[in-house]
Write a structure and sequence with these properties.
Blueprint: H1 6-33, H2 44-77, H3 109-119, H4 170-188, H5 190-193, H6 204-207, H7 218-232, H8 243-260, E1 274-275, E2 286-287, H9 291-315, H10 322-347, H11 377-402, H12 407-426
């Protein structure tokens, strides 16, 4: 599908941002659902495996956050806004490869197969094959085929019919973006295409991620797009270290351990696409109805949305000092590590409610309202401080009044710590 205008490039980048954002949440959810050694009677081999799997899936989720940041850099470079909005789960889009439905799924063979489908290289054949006939990972020079993931899952996730203009893989989406940028530069010149400020982009100086880079011209844009493609699907010779190869290794090890011990269950019985808001008649997924679990999920969602506001402010800052920008980045990182992660670990142990006997919940990553923030610096910082303080008080009330686990006291403390780092900056004129 030819991409010939700036608006079309920005539109595709907005879709790419939503895809990377959704994948980040999807991978985090799967990682949270993996049981910890103390939560199950694992053998030493199984304990080692689940610990490695959790670390690996978490690392892929972090790389998706890197990808989202790179897409935002591209958006800023061509004059677009940073984009942290996304559709509720399950997510569908005509710009995603055919059949892709990004969902919150507990860790399982079927879930990893879906991840393989999403991350597959463009030259990997998709077919229904006997897993026993697949080339062994260490012996394969080419990425192995992947089963048509969506044909083996529930009816509501069946692959949709391919239409003209669809992208077969994520790489095709990024190739269209690159072609569009190339066309714009040839027609308008680099200075007229890359009009956004590099200082408003994420770089390793702030996020300590070596693959982050500012986009200032076509060459740097192509470098960023290469990172987005190669970390996901890899290229000939290095696909083993890409997301596709790493997920493939996990699935093969999982199958081996399940063959040796059919009772091996590495994940909590978490629901697919849990949610707490919306009309049950309209929403897709599983509505949680345990009263305390709902409140903890609401706390997690509020913290997730506020963390997103912090990131949006960083990417769309106006008037902040370098020190203030570093405070925003540290605040977002601290919220992920000290707030979202412990809440995610807790929620996959909490009951889903009487409508789902035997099942547990999980973080639903729901966005209750727009993630846009005020363009006015002082107002935004005051709002963020106020929201963090409110969430901390809510966490305390859950412990004191509702009997929630004591670990929420630590979450409240972490929220107040982040709020305290903001206060000196909104007191400035």
């Amino acid at each position: 599908m030819p991409v010939i205008t700036r608006e079309e490039v920005i539109s595709l980048l907005l879709e790419a941002a939503e895809l990377e954002h959704g994948l980040c949440c999807s991978y985090l959810y799967a990682a949270f659902t993996i049981k910890r050694p103390e939560q199950a009677a694992f053998t030493a081999e199984q304990e080692d495996a689940v610990t490695r799997w959790r670390k690996l899936v978490n690392s892929v989720a972090q790389e998706e956050m890197l990808h989202l940041s790179l897409v935002c850099n591209l958006l800023t470079a061509v004059g677009g806004p940073p984009h942290f909005e996304r559709a509720p789960f399950p997510q569908r889009s005509r710009y995603y490869p055919p059949g892709i439905t990004v969902e919150l799924l507990p860790f399982a063979d079927e879930t990893i197969t879906r991840f393989l489908y999403i991350e597959r290289p463009e030259h990997v054949e998709v077919t229904e094959i006997d897993p026993a006939l697949e080339a062994h990972l260490e012996e394969a020079d080419e990425p192995p085929m992947v089963a048509a993931a969506l044909e083996t899952l529930a009816e509501e996730t069946q692959a949709r019919e391919e239409k003209p203009g669809d992208y077969l893989t994520v790489a095709h989406l990024y190739a269209a973006i690159e072609d569009g940028l190339q066309s714009l530069v040839e027609r308008m010149g680099e200075d007229a295409v890359f009009i956004g400020p590099s200082q408003a982009q994420a770089t390793p100086d702030y996020f300590h991620l070596p693959d982050l880079r500012a986009v200032v011209d076509l060459a740097s844009a192509k470098d960023v797009l290469a990172v987005l493609i190669e970390q996901g699907e890899g290229t000939k010779g290095d696909w083993h270290d890409a997301h596709y190869g790493r997920f493939y290794a996990v699935r093969e090890e999982l199958r081996t351990l399940r063959k040796d011990d059919p009772q091996f269950e590495p994940a909590h019985p978490a629901l697919t696409n849990p949610y707490v808001i919306g009309d049950a008649a309209d929403a897709e997924g599983a509505r949680i109805d345990d009263p305390l679990t709902v409140k903890v999920m609401e706390l997690c969602n509020g913290c997730y949305q506020t963390m997103t506001h912090v990131l949006v402010r960083f990417f769309s800052h106006a008037g902040e000092t370098d020190e203030a920008l570093r405070v925003l980045v540290k605040g977002a990182v601290d919220m992920m590590e000290d707030v979202i992660e412990p809440l995610g670990k807790l929620l996959v142990t909490m009951p889903a409610g009487p409508s789902h006997p035997g099942a547990v919940a999980g973080p639903s990553f729901e966005l209750y309202r727009s993630v846009a923030v005020s363009p006015h610096r002082r107002a935004t910082w005051i709002m963020l401080h106020e929201r963090l303080s409110e969430l901390a008080s809510f966490a305390d009330r859950l412990v004191d009044d509702d009997g929630a686990p004591e670990r929420l006291t630590d979450v409240a403390g972490a929220l107040r710590d982040v709020a305290s780092t903001l206060e000196p900056h909104f007191r400035l004129p």
